[in-house]
Each structure stands twice: as C-alpha cells, then as structure tokens.
Amino acid sequence: MRFVKIVKNKAYFKRYQVKFRRRQEGKNDYYARKRLVIQNKNKYNTPKYRMIICVTNRDIICQIAYARIEGDMIVCAAYEHVLPKYSVKVGLTNYAAAYYKWRNPLIFCVFQDTYVLLFLGKHKDRTMEYKSNVSATPH
Fold first, then answer.
1. Rg of the chain taking only CA atoms, in angstroms
2. Whole-structure pTM value
3. Cα gap 75→37, rounded to integer Å
4. Fewest Cβ atoms closer than 10 Å to its Cβ: which of 53, 79, 81, 139?
C-alpha cells in the first residue's frame, strides 16, 4: 500500500465549522454542561440549580445558577473578600478557603434572602395527636 497524503482542499474549508469560542479556549466542556443543566421533562420549566466555584488569581467566587435558553441566570454569589467578617483572616485563595466557602452557610443565607422560604417549619409539636394505643400482646 502506498502512503496517500490527505489533501484539505477548498471544498473542505468551505464546509468546515469552527467550534464555539469558549470550547476553543478550553473554558467550557459542553458535553459535561449538557448533563449538568438538563432537567427532567416532568418538571415543566422548573429551574435546576447548581453551584459554581470559580477560582481566579485574587478571588474565589461561589455562585448558585440555573440555565435558561438566553443564558445562565446567577441567583446569588459569595466572594472571598467577605470571609474576614467571619473570622477567616488568612489563606483566602487556597483550596481550604474554597472548600470552606463551598460548605459555608453564607451562600445559603444569601440564597434564602433572595428567595423567601414559603415553608417555615412546624409551628407546634403534634406527636401526641398521632400516637395510638398499641397493645403488647400480638393479635
């Protein structure tokens, strides 16, 4: 068999479709993103929330977002420069700070302030109303 050189001619380049810009830059993985944002069909336009942690050179940003056709909608965000208010003074951009921010109730407090919770919990203890007389002897 002879070695045949692959020729990319004018017809090839006329039909060539470039990738998305953020795919070319290596910033988005659209295969994984599709599986993150796709919602079950029986939920009928209910937003599927996800947490995004973005690490920059000077900051760590934690966001809660959901996807729409127009683009991702950011519900709330927490930044590392807020952590000194919670007695975290050093190492604000390292892995431990990112983990603390991910586990931090700060982002969820901001989320609750954005969306007022409709269910406030039980108001009174109703355990005595549902207890029935159980006999010790088997039936």
1. 26
2. 0.62
3. 15
4. 139
Using CA of residue 106, residue 111, residue 114, residue 120, what is the dihedral sign?
negative
| Partner residues linked to 63 by β-bridges | 52, 77
pLDDT digits (tens, 9 = 90+) for 60-96: 888 889 999 898 999 888 888 877 877 777 777 777 7
Q: Which two tokens stand for residue 52?
A: 């995004």
Partners of residue 107 on adjacent β-strands:
none
Give per-residue burial for 70-86: e unless 16+ CB within 10 Å, then b.
eeeeebbebebeebeee
Q: How far apart, in whole angstroms, are the C-alpha atoms of residue 53 and residue 49?
A: 13
Tokens of 31: 């295969």
Name the residue among 72, 69, 31, 23 with its Cα closest to residue 52.
72
Within 8 A by CB and 6+ apart from 90, the residues are: none
How far, in Å, CA of 92 to CA of 62, rounded? 13
Decide: helix, strand or coil at residue 124: coil
Pairing of strands 50-55, 72-79: unpaired
